[in-house]
Amino acid sequence: MDDEAKVMKFKDGTSKPAYNHQSAVDGLFGITTAVETVDNNDLSKDLLPLVEKSNSNTQSNHENVLADCAFNDYENVEQLLSEKNKETYYVPDKDFEQEEKGKKGKYDISKFTIIDENTAKCPENKLMKRIYNKYSEGYSKYKYEGVECENCSKRQECTKASKRTIEIDSRRAYRDKMRERLKSDEGREIYSKRKEIAENGHGDDQKNKKWTQHLLRGMDKAKTEFMLIRIVSNLGKIIRFKSSELLAMMG
Questions:
Q1: Which of 96, 188, 199, 224 is deepest in the core (most CB within 10 A)?
Q2: pLDDT tens-place string over residues 56-101
């Protein structure tokens, strides 16, 4: 039993004590350039420190950074899009894939169009007015209410209330900008490589190296164990890529 391992929820619905291993992987050769071990599920705040560690280890900057939706939320999407970044980030929000696959209903909030701070349009192209706004540090939330719902033939499909209301975060504009990047032809081509680049390492750890659980206990030892696993993988790849040069040197 590992007292330092916190209970985490897995994709299969189970919950058990575990550590979460994160890695930055080079897209050209599949070399792991940085690793981190945390005692929580993936959080948006974990992404930039991992990229910074990778930049430090490689003594260079990456051209593109691809990450899954767990690393993008309203707390950091503006930062990911900042022109100060030397990398271009491709990180979808949690609803992006569902919307791309058409799994969002016709009257989902994503189907509403924001005209400005005071007005919006519903999927039936009917007007909505802002009824209040709430200011927080660095952003605002606006609530809109339908003004034509009473006579709308689709109201029962849209809402159970007498009027449809939606709440919009002002940072949605940054989310939409990230979506535009992902939806571009270049963005789709670049992001399509993420799963192959990121998941191959974890598959190799578990399937080929049979590393499905820790042999050591405690956070510090867990970090070291994962680092050693990836060092071994890196050495194998370097030897494979450089084998001809090594053979020439030995000959």
A1: 96
A2: 999 999 999 999 999 999 989 999 999 999 999 999 998 888 888 8
